[in-house]
Write the structure tokens for this entry.
Amino acid sequence: MKLPVLFWRRTIQLLVGCSVLGFSSAFLVRGNLGSASWDVLTQGITYYLPLSFGVIGILTSFVVLLLWIPLKQRLGVGTVVNVVLVGVAVDFAFTVIPVTEELWLRILYVAFGIFIGGVATGLYIGARFGTGPRDGLMTGLNRVTGLPIWIVRTAIEVSVVIVGWLLGGVVGASTVAFAVLIGPVCQYFMRVFHIELPGDKPDVEDYDPEEPILAHDAVDSESVADHPPVVPITAKGGITRRRRTRFAAKQRNG
């Protein structure tokens, strides 16, 4: 794939992914059965500041980015786009998603919000322009403290939910459902939309057909979410004919 085409594909994925993330948050909030952890915090703050949900989300993201400074996290293009575009998209989404009191429709809102949230995450992370501010906070604390990712992530999410709930944010079944389901959905769509960049291919100069190559994604971001599972590449599908020939010649000469 030519670099310009690759660049435009990555750019489109980033923009679409961040926009859909905003709609995901809006559907969860409109469902009124509980929101994702950071949205609970945003909801709580809206009761104290005369600002829109999206604007508060943007301001919260900038505050989180300030925490990157002592953690020495690297800022990516995708990080900045995520901060601004998600907030703008969620405010727009509230204007087109109607409020409803029908329980079945609210449940549908929640289910759809979780689903498209996973799709959006796969799109924007798969674009390889960097992660959002909250993922950067998680990986930075993991690196500095040495604590496992799951402990750091859980501590952040629980703290945010508690603060948001104390401020008046809605915590409910959707909060739990989001926490349980968003991971598997994200993992699936991160594989679907993952884009390989030049230089990602493993070095197979000394390839041994008896031992599969383990290809691991080399990414700019340190987020665990950016790293798809290790995938074995067999001799049949993972090495070129030229390199197979070169390896055979090497074996004969060796």
Observations:
- The first helix runs from residue 3 to 31.
- The two ends are 36 Å apart (CA to CA).
